[in-house]
Backbone:
């Protein structure tokens, strides 16, 4: 692995005889940022455009074909790509002259450097390759794990450093490239990508795509399945399996409104089209912001639109993350903190301040829990916004700190300077850095120069970014609706009997939104009796009727207090859902109980369920269960 860090390169300029003697040093500092998670030296030679010509083979679960890189002018005689779990067959230059290549030592985390010999005048490097069963970004699902049960499904998940497992690329967020693709799939299936879809559904199964706006490689994405499309308006729509399409169209019908709201706050949507593709349950995230085509998890289909904030989140990434991208994974909060903040602003416009506050408080509950775990962990410095992930998987930095502490930092800033000034600042920030990458340090100086100094505001920016925990001035948000739910939980928790509480006894699950019930469940702790849990489950149907988000909170509680009557439904849930955030907490509670029976139960369920988990989820769960 290459030792890589923020490198200050002093560039010497020749001083001409007539130069101004008041500036005799003739030196200028130019910042070269490098990425600890990539082998590529993109400041020496980089991909400008990538063209993919690939065939997706469901019989052998492989993708094979050619990745052609159009490269920058250079003086070097080698170009390094990142690969991990790929079989490289042949490399040619320009119109077909074969060239030498060398594959370096494998690092478990980063994969291997693919070093290709190039010439000074080389314009194009063509890599013929195929994926293997070690290609961690690919999730090949047999028909039994799809909604249709008829056809197989494939999707890719590139973030953070998995694109190199299905395409040989310079896999750093620093590297923005355009791409085009020709993808051949079985004739009954449809291919969709994070790009302009140039071919309609056709019997040849050949689909062409192009992405003319430069994006980081982790946003190159492909899904292949039995997909239908429903148009929501002239620039948005939903892809889903036929069995889900109607439900999805209802759940996300506010999408066009959301795009309009987002544009009003931070300026024009720059990616033309905004579609969502609903993937199978094994997708490890709630959503993934692949440009033009958000990948979404069916756990978002709540039936009452109470989980659409995830779509607001992915849409918000069209500005923060996709338009202005974290330079390295140590700056991940620049992607996610801004996005959680922006997501809440969209929800405030869409649903009002009360709902937006409820959503922000739920996030805060998550953050407090995560900070406590991080402070007790091997890496307490992960509670800082600016991370140091050298030698570690960037996934380790994908915690509530980047997302929620980041958002609370921005909310507190907004509260300090006033919304009008803050919005003007952010609009300027997105415009000034569009289609660029940014480090935390650059953000801090931009903030000082464009917001804090002109308004003569003292703000503890450094404490927020470079210190763990939550600073004193963190904004406090309250919600009477959530306080009422906490009061119910308090009754059960203090040994009271909710079955004798008239107000509670009248309640049905549909009387409150997901986040209110989450607050209720989270308010119950170890003191709650099993008879109270039995009554609550019987009245509300949390084990069977609740949506997948609520079930996750409920089963976490059941695991913590060893409420075994819920375990059979918990097992079904863990076998169906593969979204990491939802299943990881339940496994963690089972494992942390130190109860050998619960750990054994967890391991048994995992053994059975893991074929339905993407590697991202499987890796995290295995860690909790002490299997890695
Ligand atoms: Zn995000």
Residues:
């Amino acid at each position: 692995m290459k030792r890589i860090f923020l490198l200050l390169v002093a560039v010497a300029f020749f001083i001409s005889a007539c130069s101004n003697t008041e500036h005799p040093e003739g030196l200028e500092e130019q910042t070269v940022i490098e990425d600890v998670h990539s082998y590529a030296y993109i400041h020496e030679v980089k991909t400008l455009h990538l063209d993919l010509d690939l065939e997706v083979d469901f019989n052998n679960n492989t993708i094979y074909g050619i990745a052609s890189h159009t490269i920058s002018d250079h003086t070097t005689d080698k170009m390094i790509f990142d690969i991990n779990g790929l079989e490289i067959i042949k490399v040619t230059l320009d119109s077909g002259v074969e060239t030498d290549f060398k594959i370096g030592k494998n690092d478990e985390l980063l994969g291997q450097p693919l070093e290709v010999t190039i010439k000074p005048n080389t314009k194009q490097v063509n890599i013929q390759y195929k994926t293997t069963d070690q290609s961690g970004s690919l999730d090949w699902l047999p028909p039994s794990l799809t909604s249709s049960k008829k056809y197989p499904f494939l999707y890719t998940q590139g973030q953070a450093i998995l694109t190199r497992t299905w395409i040989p690329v310079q896999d750093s967020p620093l590297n923005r490239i355009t791409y085009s693709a020709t993808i051949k799939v079985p004739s009954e299936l449809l291919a969709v990508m994070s790009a302009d879809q140039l071919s309609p559904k056709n019997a040849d199964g050949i689909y062409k795509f192009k992405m003319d706006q430069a994006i980081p490689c982790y946003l190159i994405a492909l899904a292949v399945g039995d997909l239908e499309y429903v148009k929501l308006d002239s620039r948005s729509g939903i892809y889903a399996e036929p069995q889900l399409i109607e439900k999805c169209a209802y759940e996300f019908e506010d999408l066009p409104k959301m795009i309009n709201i987002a544009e009003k706050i931070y300026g024009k949507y720059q990616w033309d089209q905004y579609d969502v593709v609903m993937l199978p349950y094994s997708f490890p995230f709630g959503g993934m912001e692949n440009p033009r085509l958000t990948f979404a998890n069916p756990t978002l289909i709540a039936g009452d639109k109470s989980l659409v904030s995830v779509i607001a989140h992915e849409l918000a990434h069209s500005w923060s993350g996709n338009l202005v991208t974290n330079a390295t994974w140590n700056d991940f909060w620049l992607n996610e903190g801004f996005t959680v903040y922006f997501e809440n602003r969209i929800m405030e416009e869409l649903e009002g301040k009360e709902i937006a506050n409820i959503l922000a408080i739920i996030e805060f509950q998550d953050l407090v829990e995560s900070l406590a775990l991080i402070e007790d962990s091997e890496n307490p410095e992960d509670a800082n916004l600016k991370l140091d992930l050298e030698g570690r998987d960037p996934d380790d930095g994908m915690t509530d700190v980047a997302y929620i502490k980041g958002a609370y930092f921005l909310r507190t800033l907004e509260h300090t300077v006033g919304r009008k000034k803050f919005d003007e600042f952010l609009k300027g920030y997105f415009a000034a850095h569009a289609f660029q990458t940014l480090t935390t340090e650059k953000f801090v100086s931009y903030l000082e120069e464009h917001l804090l100094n002109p308004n003569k505001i003292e703000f503890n920016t450094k404490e927020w970014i470079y210190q763990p925990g939550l600073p004193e001035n963190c904004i406090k948000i309250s919600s009477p609706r959530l306080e009422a739910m906490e009061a119910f939980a308090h009754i059960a928790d203090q040994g009271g009997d909710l079955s004798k509480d008239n107000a509670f006894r009248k309640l049905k699950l549909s009387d409150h939104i997901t986040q209110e019930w989450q607050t209720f469940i989270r308010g119950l702790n170890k003191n709650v009796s099993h008879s109270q849990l039995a009554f609550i489950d019987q009245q509300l149907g949390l084990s069977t009727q609740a949506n997948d988000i609520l079930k996750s909170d409920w089963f976490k509680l059941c695991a913590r207090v060893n409420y075994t009557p819920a375990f059979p439904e918990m097992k079904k849930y863990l076998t169906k859902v593969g979204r990491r955030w939802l299943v990881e907490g339940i496994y963690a509670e089972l494992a942390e109980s130190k109860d050998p029976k619960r750990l054994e139960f967890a391991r048994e369920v995992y053994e059975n369920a893991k074929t339905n988990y993407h590697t991202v989820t499987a890796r995290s769960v295995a860690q909790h269960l002490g299997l890695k």
Observations:
- Confidence is low (pLDDT under 50) at residues 1-30.
- Residues 480-624 form a domain with the Serine Threonine Protein Phosphatase 5, Tetratricopeptide repeat fold (CATH 1.25.40.320).
- The two ends are 22 Å apart (CA to CA).
